[in-house]
Amino acid sequence: MSFTIDKNYLTKTTQELIQINSVNPLLSAEGKGEAEISAYIADSLSALGLDIRRTEIAPGRFNVVAILKGSGGGRNLLFNAHLDTVGVEGMISDPFSGELKDGKIYGRGSQDMKASMAAMMASAKALVDAGISLRGDLIITGVADEEHSSLGTEALVKHIKADAAIVTEPTDMHLCRAHRGFIWFDIEVFGRAAHGSRYAEGIDANMRMGRFLAELDKLEQELLTRTGHELAGPPSLHAALLQGGTEISTYADHSLLKMERRTVPGENIEEAEAELQKILNRLKAEESTFKAKITRRFWRHPFEVTREAEVVQILDKAMGERLGHRPKHSGQTFWTDAALFAEAGMETVLLGPKGFGLHSAEEWVEMESVLDLAHILTKTAIDYCGYNAL
Q1: Cβ proximity of 80 and 165 under 8 Å
Q2: What is the DSSP secondary-structure string of 165-209?
Q3: pTM (global) more than 0.70
Q4: What was the pLDDT predicted at 389?
Q5: What is the fold, at CATH topology level, of the domain defined by 182-299?
Q6: Does CATH place domain 7-179+302-385 in 3.40.630.10?
Q7: Do domains 7-179+302-385 and 182-299 have the same CATH topology?
Q8: In the chain, where are the structural domains located?
């Protein structure tokens, strides 16, 4: 089955997507959100004949879904990219330039992940241009808010279903089959306020929080020695934010730690919380004035798909044919929306282009790898969804 990726379309689309400010407004006051970029994608894919659904999932925040309808009798495949980016503060060049230089395109979101969106769109165009009639539906999705709370994908999976999903987060052209999850905890330690001179009355919450931190440090070191996951690595934690006390001459009556625990596939959230509670219980047993509580604020589960999953097998083969070698199977230490697609019952895997500078002062994407990605996605769609022979 022959097809051609339109390189000019791919490059132009990547540049024009970068030139649209879609910074997440929950991360930066200068952020414009996904309204303009989702409209651009909707118009572009509508012109190719795809069915378009553009949905406002929160004020000014949009998802876009474009469906290349199949003839029936095949499996449905979903491609996904997020439309929001992190902020542009501190970038060393115009973050919205989309400049092409030495085979690289520069700008915020170039690798994370507007080039991926362009590759998905170029894949749909290749199928349309070649007149390839898939049996199953190919669903192109661009979602809001992945960089903050994943409101877009949470909303999407309630209404859009597919047999499998490919999330095109940047993986440097490795086939990613696992990543870690996370849990955000608040640890509160309670003391008793008193004038700094009244040592017999005051109970210092900050000092007692220090005892917990010392034990937390031991747990962190122990986590890193665990076997962990073969692709995603070991679990970890860090103490992110501390707040306690009101003024220098007063015993602190309250100390707050906001911490994050990174989880790996196979770990249980309740067990991770129980490890922290065990520390608090031990400190309480050692001294009756130690009073504390733990609150689980927000969490996302880790993700894993087996090597034997059919979408993995088909993608692996397509990558080998395009790249000339079998791809490396990898895991990531960060979290992605892949976990939400997997939880919704879709066989899910990650694949994205090569580049540099995620969330940093300079970001670029290697366009040769974006071309490879578009080709691999197209071949995978044909093989997974099936097609009607002419």
Answers
A1: yes
A2: EEE----TT-EEEEE-EEEEEEEEEE-B--BTT-TTT-B-HHHHH
A3: yes
A4: 73
A5: Alpha-Beta Plaits (3.30.70)
A6: yes
A7: no
A8: 7-179+302-385, 182-299
> What is the spatial distance between Cα 141 and Cα 93, in angstroms, rounded to a whole number?
29
Residues in contact with 200: Cβ distance below 8 Å, sequence separation at least 6, in sequence order: none
pLDDT at 170 over 80: yes
What is the model's pLDDT at position 390?
Answer: 63
Number of residues that make up the chain: 390
* Cα(381)–Cα(164) distance, integer angstroms: 10
For 10-27, the pLDDT digits (tens) are 999 999 999 999 999 999
Residue pLDDT, tens place only, 239-281:
999 999 999 999 999 999 999 999 999 999 999 999 999 999 9
For CA atoms 104, 108, 109, 114, the dihedral sign is: negative
Active site residues: 84, 146
Residue with tokens 């509580």: 293
Nearest CA among 305, 85, 266, 82 for reference residue 181: 266
